[in-house]
Amino acid sequence: MRMQWLDYSTDNCSVQRTMDVIGEKWTMIVLREVFNGVRRFEQMRRHTGISDPVLSARLRTLVDAGILDTVPYREEGRRTRNEYRLTEKGRDLYPILVALLRWGDKYCADPDGPSLLIEHRDCGAPVEAIVHCAHGHGPLRPSESQTRPGPTAQKLPEGTKT
């Protein structure tokens, strides 16, 4: 059944809910750092230039959302602090980060090329984020996909369509 997009509410849209968690610029920068092995607040702050209050807020959001876990550590003579580690939910964001990087490499990189390369550790080939169907067909372009109502789709009342 082909979906008439404007007939349905977007109030419970998964894209919208995801953006509520990760859609702020500094959140993706924090995730970039954690994916690249930076786990401590001070290292993130120095490497990114994010202010303390903004970094604290972004880390809190990611922990509250279950994307990062905190792991206490203590250096001799200092108070206990937390490292931030990706959860399974957090690791599942990797394709999104790769897709953003690849889009940026294509449209926003310096004229001489990108500043960062992601390669498969075993063979050295570039890592890509590719959309394909569950049967392995792909890569898919938007015109090769369709949207249909899911189990929680909410049809808009007559007269409220945009």
Query: Which percent band covers the strand fraction?
Result: 5-15%
Shape: globular
Which blocks of ≥5 consecutive residues have pLDDT under 50?
none
Using the CA coordinates, give the radius of gyration.
20 Å
Largest sheet: 2 strands, antiparallel
Helix share bin: 25-40%
Order of helices and strands: HHHHEEHH
Number of strands: 2
Number of helical segments with 4 or more residues: 6
Determine the N-to-C terminus distance.
21 Å
Describe the structure.
The chain is mostly helical. The chain is 36% helix and 7% strand. It is built from 6 helices and 2 strands; from the N terminus they run ααααββαα. It has helices at residues 14-22, 25-35, 41-48, 52-64, 88-91, 94-107; strands at 68-73, 81-86. The chain has a two-stranded antiparallel ribbon with strand order 1-2. The longest helix is centred in the middle third of the chain and has 14 residues, at 94-107. It is globular, with a radius of gyration of 20 Å. The two termini are 21 Å apart.
Topology diagram in text:
Elements: H1 14-22, H2 25-35, H3 41-48, H4 52-64, E1 68-73, E2 81-86, H5 88-91, H6 94-107
What descriptive keywords fit this protein?
single chain, 162 residues, mainly alpha, 6 helices, globular
Give a brief description.
This protein has six helices and two strands, in the order H-H-H-H-E-E-H-H. By secondary structure, the chain is mainly α.
